[in-house]
Backbone:
């Protein structure tokens, strides 16, 4: 896809540092660190403070590397969309070559560092996460299928599994349940975004669900995924992983998620529909944060 090549800007040291930080998608990275830390903290094996800190830094760097490689490959699309046009490459703060070099180097450093400070299994899962996000989601699926975020969401769901592996040098059912919560949450989260940013995706010719299947089908899919998410979110209680505090919080949070999704599905007024989509998108971020916070609260008291 053709786009205007941005003029490269000359930045000072702090300007470059800020540009590289933004290249790493810090908001996404913060969620990755948090969910990974939860997986680490709830594991039955305790890790020394320094090993835990350096391991989480390595995971954060790996997340940032994946984000940088995503921006490198999608810089043409980013320049066309209002949501992404101010990213470092479209604005000329960094070049594509700088983003590519930074992404590759950071990927290697993050995986090696995680191996040094934790173990091979955790490092391998991190490597798979980066490769899956870059090659499967960004390069293969993003521009080809409306199911891009469904399949590609697996990469964003792996951090709690990595955290668990850092502590235990293995994988168990408990972190897999956390993986499933994020995996099933991801489509409704991004489809809500795509509903009120549909013109962006249409302009960039990205086959998001509202573009390929229409708004009503998208809203139906959001509602279905919210319904599926509910039993998965409360299942840790019935598997005896967490106690009553988690069950109550997860049930309330998930029930409200279903409620908003249902309201969005039934809404026919286009203006109110957009407002509900924005509300659902905002709540979905809070939801995931609160679900994982509920796990920590419950573990501290259970």
Residues:
């Amino acid at each position: 896809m053709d786009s205007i090549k941005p003029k490269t800007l000359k930045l000072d040291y702090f300007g470059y540092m800020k540009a590289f930080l933004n290249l790493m998608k810090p908001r996404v990275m913060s969620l990755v660190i948090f969910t990974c830390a939860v997986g680490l903290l709830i594991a039955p094996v305790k890790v020394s403070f320094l090993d835990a800190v350096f391991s989480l830094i390595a995971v954060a760097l790996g997340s940032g590397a994946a984000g940088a490689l995503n921006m490198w490959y999608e810089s043409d699309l980013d320049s066309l969309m209002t949501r992404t046009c101010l990213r470092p490459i479209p604005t000329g703060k960094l070049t594509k070559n700088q983003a590519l070099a930074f992404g590759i180097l950071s990927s290697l450093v993050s995986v090696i560092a995680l191996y040094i400070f934790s173990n091979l299994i955790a490092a391998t899962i991190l490597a798979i996460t980066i490769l899956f996000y870059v090659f499967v989601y960004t390069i293969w699926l993003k521009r080809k299928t409306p199911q891009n975020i469904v399949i590609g969401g697996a990469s964003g769901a792996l951090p709690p599994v990595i955290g668990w592996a850092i502590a235990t040098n293995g994988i168990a059912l408990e972190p897999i349940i956390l993986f499933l919560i994020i995996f099933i949450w991801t489509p409704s989260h991004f489809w809500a975004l795509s509903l009120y940013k549909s013109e962006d995706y249409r302009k960039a010719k990205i086959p998001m669900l509202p573009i390929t299947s229409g708004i009503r089908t998208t809203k139906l899919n959001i509602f279905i995924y919210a319904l599926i998410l509910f039993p998965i979110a409360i299942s840790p209680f019935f598997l005896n992983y967490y106690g009553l505090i988690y069950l109550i919080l997860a049930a309330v949070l998930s029930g409200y998620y279903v409620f908003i999704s249902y309201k969005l599905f039934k809404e026919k007024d286009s203006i109110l529909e957009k407002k509900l989509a924005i509300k659902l998108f905002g709540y979905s971020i809070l939801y995931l944060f609160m679900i994982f916070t509920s796990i920590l609260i419950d573990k501290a008291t259970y």
Notes: Residues 270-301 form the longest helix (32 residues). The mean pLDDT is 94. The domain at 12-169 is CATH 1.10.357.140 (Tetracycline Repressor; domain 2). DSSP finds 14 helices and no strands in the chain.
